[in-house]
Amino acid sequence: MASSKRALLIDTAQALFYKNGFRATGIDLILAEAGVAKKTLYHHFTSKDDLIIATLMQRDQQLLLRLKTDTQRLIPVQTCQTKLAPIMAFFDALAEWITSEQFFGCMFINGSAEYPRHDDPIHLACREHKLLMMQLIESLLVEVELSDKKSVVRQLSIIADGAIVGAHTMSESDSTRFAKIAAQAVLTHFCLNYTQ
Amino acid sequence: MASSKRALLIDTAQALFYKNGFRATGIDLILAEAGVAKKTLYHHFTSKDDLIIATLMQRDQQLLLRLKTDTQRLIPVQTCQTKLAPIMAFFDALAEWITSEQFFGCMFINGSAEYPRHDDPIHLACREHKLLMMQLIESLLVEVELSDKKSVVRQLSIIADGAIVGAHTMSESDSTRFAKIAAQAVLTHFCLNYTQ
DNA sequence: AAATAACTAGACCGACCTGTATACTTCTGC
DNA sequence: GCAGAAGTATACAGGTCGGTCTAGTTATTT
Asked: Do B190 and B147 form a contact (C-beta atoms < 8 A)?
């Protein structure tokens, strides 16, 4: 195995950063939790910020993969029109994630909150994830005929983010239910071939 | 004046916390910026967390007042149905705030991100603000006949939060435009007496 | 005018932070 | 089997953190 320690460090850091925040989580805690020497960390990463970005990149891939997989699994159980099933299933996948045991909001929204400067590499990494999330939403709308697809993608992205924030900030895990309803309303409004 | 220093400290802290984050902003920087002695800070506040909460409470009042005022001002220029004008004006007020010079997201979303534990006093203060925000949205819907008002309030609240997050995390200030469109779609869908 | 409250300036504390250096050990590829 | 990479353990540097303390100064109130 090339560098299992590197992977172990990222996994440990991810759990701690997500649960407690980036600035609140010290290097020493990560090292103690992972059982790894400090020298090893700085062998694989140039700085804490570098570790944060690597953590965000892994989280990005894992979360998108999870949402994609869960969405596909949930498409068949949708009761709506076939072409809308993928995007509706996406909101169910979102609900599963949000109501799962370990949910502390979106790591990327949290990251951009802790590193507010728009030119900060960490902030930019968070932005990158949100762009990929929008691409995922767009990919689930390929079969849907919309009067303005770009606009609908933006609207659904906003609704998804709002649901995540609502669930975390207000500790109300049922926000995805309302997000799905809002998404349906948007799709009804802009779908050219919609049948209730 | 009872305690101008206390007000000065809160004002200074608010600007710095908002721009740079809570944990990233040290007590010493606030004191230097405000030109106030450390002893004075700990005369008015028991701890940094106490100052943070006082800051959040002031911010809560100021932001809600600003949004209420701006909403009232923007009601007359709405082109939609009269009864929907208040809530539509709210999304324009949101847009004015988001596109204003100094915007670093929602201080309460950021706060709950930095203090993720749901029982943390700071997290709870952020939650409180979001509840008041929902009350504001609800108050703008009094004249609107809706099939399920509670549900619509939640949906609009989610859309508003999504717009704020989108503007900050993705650095795209036009998110409120799409939020307003989504809000219109939701209202169209649930409004009993809607006419386009 | 006296007393009390609010304030300044700055030293200081212990804890914690990121990151580096030293010295040694284990693993791994050729 | 040996060289080099990757690892451990730990001390340490240099700084910042929140918070306390002392001592003296200004304001306010009665």
From this structure: yes
Q: Please give the Cα distance from A150 to A164 (Å, whole number).
A: 21
A158/B166 CB distance under 8 A? yes
- Residues 123-142 on A with a CB inside 8 Å of B are 123, 126-127, 130-131
Tell me how many degrees the CA angle B72-B77-B83 measures, rounded to the nearest 5. Answer: 65
Chain B, 174 to 193: residues with Cβ < 8 Å from chain A are: 175, 178-179, 181-182, 184-186, 188-190
Through-space separation of residue A29 CA and nucleotide D22 C1' in angstroms: 37
Return the DSSP state at A170.
Answer: S
Task: Write the pLDDT tens digit of every residue in B10-54.
Answer: 999 999 999 999 999 999 999 999 999 999 999 999 999 999 999
B108-145 confidence digits (pLDDT tens)? 999 999 999 999 999 999 999 999 999 999 999 999 99
Q: For residue B194, what pLDDT band results from cuts at 50, 70 and 90?
A: low
- Residue A40 (CA) to nucleotide D3 (C1'), in angstroms, measures 20
B44 touches strand D (CB under 7 A): no
What's the pLDDT score for residue B1?
A: 42
- CATH value of B49-190 in 3.30.460.10, 1.10.10.10, 1.10.357.10, 3.40.1180.10: 1.10.357.10
* Extents of the domains making up chain B: 1-45, 49-190
CB contact under 8 A, A161 and B166: yes
Which CATH number does A57-190 carry? 1.10.357.10
Which residues, 6+ apart, have CB-to-CB distance to B136 below 8 Å?
B64, B67, B68, B90
Q: Which CATH architecture has domain A1-45?
A: Orthogonal Bundle (1.10)
Same fold, A1-45 and A57-190: no
CB distance from A158 to chain B under 8 Å?
Answer: yes
Q: Are A31 and A37 in contact (CB under 8 A)?
A: yes
Instruction: List the B81 CA – D10 C1' distance (angstroms).
Output: 72
